[in-house]
Specification:
Helix 3 runs parallel beside helix 7, helix 4 packs antiparallel against helix 7 and helix 12 packs across helix 13. The protein has 3 domains: 107 residues, Ubiquitin-like (UB roll), CATH 3.10.20.30; 129 residues, Alpha-helical ferredoxin (Fumarate Reductase Iron-sulfur Protein, Chain B, domain 2, Orthogonal Bundle), CATH 1.10.1060.10; 80 residues, no CATH class. The strands form 3 sheets. The chain has a 5-stranded mixed sheet with strand order 2-1-5-3-4. It has a two-stranded antiparallel ribbon with strand order 6-7. A two-stranded antiparallel ribbon has the order 8-9. It has 387 residues and is of the alpha+beta class. It has 16 helices and 9 strands.
Length: 387
């Protein structure tokens, strides 16, 4: 039986000692999980090892840790897979608590202090429309498919652990909470879509505080893609409800689009003034003045030259302009979701170019009952306040 070395990050606040690393030799097959290795070390060598776990089936989300620098579920990571992540070639599996949350003991973090506090921030329950139906709400199938991806979240905190925005701004609502927010913004039974979006847009630590680092997408063990849900919240707030927030987030996004359409590539010298109405707009002047120290450092280090900044030719290739014309000429916006609709029979031999609208979700999505109803018919769900 192969032997593996687990290097656990130990910390006990009662001793007053600083955190330290401790190695444990375990004998398990490579297909066994990291969690099983930790439990073997605790059972056979040191009963004081602290680890939170429950289902051991990647359902409860309790055993979230960092394994060789990457967040994940200890019960869902094989030992041989974890060893392959060892970039230092030291032959060890380093396990440490998740980031961006205070450590209680060893591998256990305080989820209440950060993760659950931020979840409560976004009002994670349905604010039902009035009058409430006597029997049930009828929800169109496409709407349920739309929110199914966010409903897959198991609240493990892996995305929170790796969020770079939260490292810089601990007050940022965070990827898990904002993905949960879209669960209700995308639900047609909710009565306060505008209020939810306005609240998250106006909050300086809300949807426009995300930096598009993609870490949460890579970290999520369930494919929720929190960053994608944040971008959908932005599109709903800006394109659908035209919420002009005090953080200038919407105008900043429009400046990106204008900049790339005009230049073909992002010309950063124009991005800041365009976000405030142009170089000579009264609102842009204070921002330009405040950015002078950054500009001077960039000039000193050769990252920008006066000629390139001031005499840039704004000429985008025709191919770029055609892309913009094509996208903006569409009648309605297309939202991408990991869960698709289609009939299983369609996938047998010749999969369709576009998914059929009237069937069950693909593998990985919650199954729906088969029905002969036309595409327009909805599925029925019992009214509930929290999903």
């Amino acid at each position: 039986m192969p032997a593996y070395t687990l290097r656990l990050r130990r910390y006990d606040p009662e001793t007053g000692e600083a955190p330290f690393w401790q190695d444990f030799e375990i004998d398990l097959e490579g297909h066994r999980s990291v969690l099983e290795g930790i439990l073997q070390a605790r059972g056979d060598q040191d009963g004081t090892i602290g680890i939170r776990c429950s289902c051991r089936a990647a359902i409860c989300g309790s055993c979230g840790v960092r394994i060789n620098g990457r967040p994940g579920l200890a019960c869902h990571t094989h030992l041989d897979e974890a060893l392959a992540r060892d970039h230092d070639a030291a032959g060890v599996i380093a396990v440490e608590p998740m980031g961006n949350m205070p450590v209680i003991k060893d591998l256990i973090v305080d989820m209440d202090a950060v993760h659950w506090k931020k979840i409560r921030r976004v009002t994670p329950w349905l604010l039902a429309k009035e009058p409430v139906p006597e029997r049930e709400y009828v929800v169109p199938h496409e709407n349920m498919v739309d929110v199914t991806q966010t409903m897959a979240c198991i609240q493990c905190g892996a995305c929170v652990s790796d969020c770079l925005s939260m490292e810089v701004d601990p007050l940022f609502a965070g990827p898990a909470a904002l993905a949960k927010a879209y669960r209700f913004v995308g639900d047609p039974r909710d009565a306060q879509h505008l209020e939810r979006l306005r609240d998250l847009s106006e909050d300086p630590h809300g949807i426009y505080d995300c930096t598009h680092c993609f870490n949460c997408i890579e970290a999520c063990p369930k494919g929720v893609a929190p960053m994608s849900q944040i971008m959908r919240l932005r599109r709903r707030a800006g394109s659908d409800f035209e919420i002009e927030d005090r953080n200038n987030g919407l105008r900043h996004e429009h400046a990106f689009v204008k900049n790339v359409r005009r230049n073909g590539l992002l010309h950063e010298a124009d991005l800041l003034p365009d976000s405030y109405g142009g170089k000579f707009h009264p609102n842009a002047v204070p921002e330009l003045v405040s950015s002078l120290p950054v500009v001077l450092r960039a000039l000193q280090r050769g990252k920008v030259t006066p000629g390139k900044a001031l005499r840039h030719q704004h000429k985008a290739p025709d191919a770029v302009k055609r892309i913009f014309d094509l996208v903006e000429g569409r009648g309605e916006r297309e939202e991408l979701n990991l869960y698709i609709s289609g009939d299983e029979d369609d996938l047998a031999d010749d999969p369709p170019a576009r998914p059929a609208p009237d069937a069950v979700p693909a593998a990985g999505a919650p199954a729906a009952e088969a029905s002969d109803a036309p595409p327009e018919s909805g599925i029925e769900t019992e009214p509930q306040e929290n999903a």
